[in-house]
Amino acid sequence: MRHDDQICRISQGVASAPRKDSKARRQGAKAGRDRARNENQPPARSPTAQGRIVRNLRKLDRWRDSSRQVIEHYGGAGDETCGVFVVPSPIDGAPMRVIASSGDAWDHVSVSRSNRCPNWPELESVKRAFFNDDETAMQLHVPSSEHLSLHPYCLHLWRPNDGREIPRPPGIMVAP
Fold this sequence. Notes:
Elements: H1 3-8, H2 23-38, E1 48-49, E2 52-53, H3 68-74, E3 83-88, E4 95-103, E5 106-112, H4 120-130, E6 154-160, H5 171-174
Antiparallel strand pairs: 1-2, 3-4, 4-5, 5-6
């Protein structure tokens, strides 16, 4: 497994408590990739999905956190599809921690602040920076029985990257 794959396979809720890798998990992931290659299927993580290219996060390297702590924790600083970023709030300039990942047919960012949830202008600025202008991203409010929270001030944005479009209501229903 490439070191950057550890951070790129991050799932929801990792803004404050990302999981550590284990030898068994690494071996299982390698076996899964080997099976996929043997069956002529692409690996789960791919920078392209049905011809759609995810935003190149190397363009956001000015905000990328490549500190020793991030590299020790995740095994790398990420790549063009994933990473940990410290983005200034457009409201007060305070740091917002953003963790971006792409895998299992989804692009995902988590956005957190140390003392409160990000507000609409902050979440919107992250959406504009981490997703292409012509893409729709969404927040999900799952059933209570499925709700997971590892950080009290973290919000998430999701976008399918396998060619599926997120359904949207007619514009007249949003802003008549």
